[in-house]
């Protein structure tokens, strides 16, 4: 909860252009090794922070770096969180992470 409470303030404090590593605390949580990312204890604060940042017009990074390094088999944030967002613009950052700007009614993530 503390992580996402702080994450929700990132734009207020930094006036950033996009949100990176939103689900960073899951980087080493493959197969829910430390906690279950499908439970409300995780999802509720994550979704609250995501909704706040989304309302500020920020695109969210989909981090694939942990996959290329063998830490994960799927990107983060997890698919449950990504399904909550809508997208209309795809861009790839210089570090090779996939970023989406979520605004339209389309329901699938890249």
């Amino acid at each position: 909860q503390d992580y996402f409470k702080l994450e929700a303030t990132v734009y207020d404090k930094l006036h950033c252009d996009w949100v990176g590593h939103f689900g960073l605390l899951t980087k080493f949580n493959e197969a829910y090794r430390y906690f279950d990312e499908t439970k409300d204890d995780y999802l509720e604060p994550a979704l609250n922070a995501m909704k706040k940042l989304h309302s500020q017009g920020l695109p969210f990074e989909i981090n694939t770096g942990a996959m290329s390094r063998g830490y994960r088999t799927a990107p983060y944030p997890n698919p449950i969180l990504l399904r909550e967002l809508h997208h209309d613009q795809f861009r790839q950052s210089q570090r090779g992470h996939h970023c989406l700007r979520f605004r339209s009614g389309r329901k699938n993530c890249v």
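The longest helix spans residues 40-55. Residues 87-110 have pLDDT under 50 and may be disordered.
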